[in-house]
Design a protein that fits this description.
mainly beta, 6-stranded antiparallel barrel, 5-stranded antiparallel β-sheet, 6 helices, 27 strands, disordered N terminus
Length: 370
């Protein structure tokens, strides 16, 4: 899910170390003695790395001036899938037999970031060519046409309804009723014009009623085209205002927090130590919450520790992204801990390359948090 997740982070590595004479790749055994808990700092940096927003669970559109994080702008490209007739006594053939007399874009709101008392103004444009959402990043752009209409949305609304102009309906009549709608209609671009909130609209859900949709009405039938494709583009102006020593991890932007696992000082100090457990801890700031009517998203829904190479590219094993572990947040601290992480840190302390497994050539030296 595309979210603006605001975390300011510092990093510590917990290492449960046995006597260095007891060295092994696995967990320390019964003969290992009493483990010692050691805290060591690891370098944390920010990497310019694109965020993939294509075909996320929801698309975002709006503009907000966050007092702590700067002005954030999001725009959405939405396309729609096959038609379903809402009248149980009718079929698509019945709908296609008569002209379309009205079309409404329905946008159930699933996300809010900004002043819930504000009004957001949008321009709705047509997308002029088919676009591929899979793998699209947050700075992607696609060709769009002239403004179809402008509309306003209250930031605290549950659903935003946009009636399309009659002249647009007349021009698109045969497209909306055609059997090749999926290939002849390319969707809409939601462009924010003003306001102080970013709203989110779902394009994937178990319930079709909670999804963004395009509803077309003829004299006797109504057809719904449900959103099934989306891309969010995100930009920010102005520098975040954060406490000294803090770093920002915010979903959707071209930066990722990176841990360097090959820190020479750490490796030299604890070389050949046997590990019982390895945990990466990242204390978070709790000050980036709601302020009056200004709301921010929860800190995060999920964060992952992902292997990257020296150039910042994702490391894959076969065709799958090498995701080491999901993060857990409690007591204002983000923690990553697993047997795989323990094994990787152990290999590092023994002077071996960090690889997916013993025989793999999928190796890396840094871990990205995203």
């Amino acid at each position: 899910m595309t979210r603006f997740s605001c975390l300011a982070l510092a990093v510590l590595l917990f290492a449960a170390c046995d006597d260095p004479s007891n060295v092994g790749l696995g967990l320390v055994g019964d003969e290992g003695g009493t483990p010692e808990i050691v805290r060591v700092s690891l370098p944390l940096a920010s990497l310019d790395q694109a965020e993939r927003t294509g075909n996320a669970n929801q698309s975002l559109a709006g503009i907000t001036d966050d007092p702590a994080l700067g002005t954030i702008r999001a725009a959405a490209y939405l396309d729609f899938g096959s038609a379903s007739v809402l009248n149980t006594n009718s079929t698509l053939s019945d709908f296609r037999a008569s002209n379309v007399v009205g079309v409404t874009l329905e946008l159930p709101v699933s996300y809010r970031y900004g002043d819930t008392l504000s009004t957001v103004r949008y321009a709705l444009r047509s997308i002029t060519a088919p676009f591929v959402a899979t793998g699209a990043e947050s700075d992607t752009s696609f060709a769009v046409g002239d403004v179809i209409t402008t509309f306003e949305a209250q930031a605290n609304a549950t659903t935003v309804s946009v009636a399309l102009p009659d002249d647009w309906v007349a021009r698109l009549d045969t497209t909306l009723r055609g059997s090749n709608f999926l290939n002849t209609f390319n969707g809409f671009y939601l462009e924010p014009l003003s306001g102080n909130a970013v709203l989110g609209f779902r394009q994937f859900s178990v319930s079709a009623q909670s999804l963004a949709s395009l509803t077309a009405r003829s004299a006797s039938d109504t057809v719904r085209y449900v959103a099934n494709t989306g891309v969010t583009t995100i930009s920010r102006s102005g520098a975040p205002s954060l406490p000294a020593g803090a770093m920002l991890l915010q979903d959707g932007f071209r930066h990722t927090l990176v841990l360097d696992m090959n820190d020479q000082a750490v490796n030299a100090t604890y070389a050949n130590a046997g590990l019982a457990r390895a945990t990466i801890e990242l204390p978070t700031l709790s000050t980036l919450g709601d302020v009056g009517s200004y709301v921010r998203p929860p800190a995060f829904e999920d964060l992952q520790l992902v292997a990257i190479d020296a150039d910042g590219n994702d490391v894959v094993s076969g065709t799958s992204l090498l995701i080491l572990i999901e993060g857990d947040l409690s007591d204002n601290t983000l923690r990553f801990s697993s047997a795989r992480l323990q094994q990787l840190v152990q290999r590092n302390l023994l002077g071996n390359p960090l690889c997916y497994d013993e025989t793999s050539t999928d190796c890396f030296g840094r871990l990205a948090i995203r």
